[in-house]
Each structure stands twice: as structure tokens, then as C-alpha cells.
Design a protein that fits this description.
Elements: H1 3-7, H2 15-29, H3 38-54, H4 57-66, E1 78-83, H5 97-105, E2 121-127, H6 129-134, E3 136-147, E4 156-163, E5 172-177, E6 180-185, E7 194-199, E8 208-219, E9 228-231, E10 247-253, E11 260-262, E12 265-273, H7 274-279, E13 281-287, E14 290-296, E15 305-308, E16 325-332, H8 339-351
Parallel strand pairs: 2-10, 12-16
Antiparallel strand pairs: 1-6, 3-8, 4-7, 5-6, 9-10, 11-12, 13-14, 15-16
Helix pairs in contact: 2-3
The structure holds zinc ion (ZN) (2 copies).
One zinc ion binds next to loops.
């Protein structure tokens, strides 16, 4: 491919002509302004390559004398066949660069063999707190693109051989733009001139069909709220041999009525009667695995915390990181209804004069 043609320049173009042409084309084809447009991206890379050679006097001279690049431009399989002066278009009005090369650089989706990986799928599921501790299994219904069975994912069906209609059996297509004639290997038959395939009707040539599937997912023990579980290869199917995407499940863990989780520790608020806190007590507490006991020392205050080592979230991954159960005391006054208790409290007050708010 002629670098001057790529930039739309005469051989006699000056360095500032080269720069101007590059700026103009780069503005038009830069991938940043044409996101996802493979055609623009490939034009842009050719334009940039042409600019790199022609803007460097040494490289340009080497190119001019040889008429080609030693390291030839990749992928494009078309040839420039010379000029055709039968057309009526003339000068700059004939065509812009984009018009000129749009057909050349466009590749047929079905014909190009580039594998495309399937995209990932994202779903969320809700499980109970206890399930998050034990681990669980769920069947989730996934709407995904599956491989089309009719064409086994190829998008094409083999048929009785015939002559390729696109190139009339010649294997090449030829077309005229402005004064120039191009030809290229026919993308429909890959240059063979024969037609052996037709697009699959079921998937319209894409190789994939929309389907719905029930997928069994194992949720590992210890998963925290917001945690993500990856199920490999259960996303959308890949195209033309590309990898299938993955399925990601975001796990929402329902709150537990008693425990709240912080990392691997579990927190529990424990109601403690005033007399238990004052005199000390052994109190039974709920834990994940049945019941446990803690000893509250005499004089315990509300808000004080006690740790039961290793009684938090179990060590599911074998890293010796089992969490603790953190018990926070909340002082509670028992309902005092009988006269005897009131009398005792009055006596208690007389014996313990002093203001608990003395720091105020
Ligand atoms: Zn198909
Ligand atoms: Zn053909």
C-alpha cells in the first residue's frame, strides 16, 4: 500500500504537507473519537504508520527509492492495481480518504476469523446468614448466548458447492474509486471462487443463540455480604472459537437477628442485669456452634467487651484466622415491681451514696 496514497499526498509533498495531512486524518480516525470502531482503528494505524515513515526524511528517502517498506503493513490483503481514468470524478472532489478506502478496509464480519471471547454475566443472589456460614448451593436461571447447535457455532452451514456469487467465481473482487482500481481477495469465498457455505438461518450467521439455562452454583462457606463467586465459562459463549465468558454472582447475605459480622469477627450485644454486672456472673451466650459461656467480672460496666477466642467466623480457608465472638455488655435494669426489691434498692442507695455523674 502506497504511503502517499494513505495520506492523500503527492510524491512531492513537503514535510508540512505530511504533518497537515496526518493531523487532518488523525482527527477523523483516532480510536478515541471512534470507540469500538475497528475500521477507524485500522485506518488510524495505517495513517500513523505512513506518517512515521514520511515525516522522517531518512526513512522517507529509503521508502522512495525502494517503493515499499521492508516490514510490510500487516493484514490488509488488497492490491492497488493502477489508475483508471474512465471515471468522471476529479481532483479533490473525487473522494475523501475515508470514501476511498472504506471498502478496502472493511472486512466482512463472518469472513474474518478473529476469535471473540464471550462476555461475562453478572447476577446477584440472596442467602441467609446461616447459609453464608455453612456454604450452600443454588440453582440460578441464566439467560445467556449459547452456541448454535445447527451450525456448531460457526455461523455457516455447508452446502452443495457452487460458484461464489460475490466474485462470480474469480476469487477476487475488483472495484474502482476515483481514478484508481483496487482488487482484493473475495471475503465470501476466501479466494477459492467456490461457495461452500451459507449463513446459518437459526443464528443468522452469528454462531450463537439466546438461551436460558439453570446453573447450579456452589456458594462457599464464609462468603461475606457483597462477596463475589465466579463460575468459569458460564457467561456468554465466545465467537469463532473464542473463550466463553464467566458468570459472576454477587452474594447478598441477609442480616442475622443477633450476630453482625465484621471481617471474621462476630459481634453480639448481650443484655446483662445490673446485679449480674455488679456482682459478677457466669452467663450463657449464643454462638454459631451452639452455646458458650462467658464470665462477667464484678463491676462490669455497660459497653464493656469480652472476646471469645475462635468462636467467630470459622477458619474456612485453613489460614488459622478463625474470628472471635465479641460480646458487648448492655446493662439492663430488671423490672422492679415488688415492695421487697424496692426496699432493698433504697437500702443500697443509702449505703452507696455518691454521684455517678460527678465528672459532669
Ligand atoms: Zn447457527
Ligand atoms: Zn468469492
Amino acid at each position: 500500500m502506497d504511503l502517499y496514497i494513505i495520506l492523500g499526498l503527492e510524491r512531492s509533498a513537503t514535510l508540512s504537507d505530511v504533518r497537515r495531512a496526518y493531523r487532518r486524518l488523525a482527527r477523523k480516525y483516532h480510536p478515541g473519537i471512534n470507540p469500538g470502531d475497528r475500521n477507524s482503528a485500522s485506518v488510524f494505524s495505517r495513517v500513523t504508520e505512513a506518517y512515521q515513515v514520511l515525516s522522517d526524511p531518512e526513512q522517507r528517502q529509503r521508502y522512495d527509492s525502494r517503493g515499499s517498506l521492508t516490514d510490510t503493513l500487516p493484514e490488509s490483503s488488497f492490491e492497488f492495481q493502477g489508475f483508471d481514468f474512465s471515471g468522471s470524478a476529479e481532483g479533490e472532489a473525487a473522494s475523501t480518504f475515508g470514501d476511498l478506502f472504506a471498502d478496502v478496509l472493511r472486512t466482512d464480519d463472518r469472513a474474518d476469523g478473529v476469535a471473540a471471547d464471550g462476555t461475562d454475566l453478572h447476577l446477584s443472589i440472596r442467602i441467609s446468614f446461616n447459609e453464608s456460614m455453612r456454604g450452600t448451593e443454588r440453582a440460578v436461571t441464566v439467560a445467556r448466548l449459547n452456541r448454535c447447535d445447527d451450525c456448531r457455532g460457526s455461523g455457516a452451514l455447508r452446502m452443495v458447492e457452487g460458484r461464489c456469487a460475490a466474485c462470480r467465481g474469480t476469487g477476487r473482487v475488483r472495484w474502482v474509486r476515483g481514478h484508481m482500481v483496487f482488487s482484493r481477495t473475495c471475503v465470501h469465498c476466501g479466494g477459492s471462487g467456490r461457495q461452500e457455505h451459507r449463513a446459518c438461518l437459526r443464528c443468522e450467521g452469528s454462531g450463537a443463540v439466546q438461551g436460558s439455562e439453570s446453573v447450579r452454583v456452589r456458594i462457599p462457606a464464609g462468603v461475606d455480604d457483597g462477596g463475589r463467586v465466579r463460575v468459569p465459562k458460564r457467561g456468554h459463549v465466545g465467537r469463532r472459537g473464542g473463550r466463553p465468558g464467566d458468570l459472576y454472582l454477587t452474594v447478598e447475605v441477609e442480616p442475622h437477628p443477633l450476630f453482625t459480622r465484621e471481617g471474621n469477627d462476630l459481634h453480639l450485644v448481650l443484655p446483662v442485669a445490673v446485679h449480674e454486672a455488679a456482682l459478677g456472673a457466669k452467663i450463657e451466650v449464643p454462638t454459631l456452634d451452639g452455646r458458650g459461656n462467658i464470665r462477667i467480672p464484678p463491676g462490669t460496666q455497660s459497653g464493656q467487651r469480652f472476646r471469645l477466642r475462635g468462636r467467630g467466623v470459622p477458619d474456612f480457608r485453613g489460614r488459622n484466622h478463625a474470628g472471635d465472638l465479641v460480646v458487648e455488655v448492655r446493662l439492663v435494669l430488671p423490672r422492679v415491681v415488688d415492695e421487697r426489691s424496692k426496699a432493698l434498692l433504697r437500702e443500697f442507695a443509702e449505703l452507696n451514696e455518691g454521684n455517678v455523674r460527678e465528672d459532669f
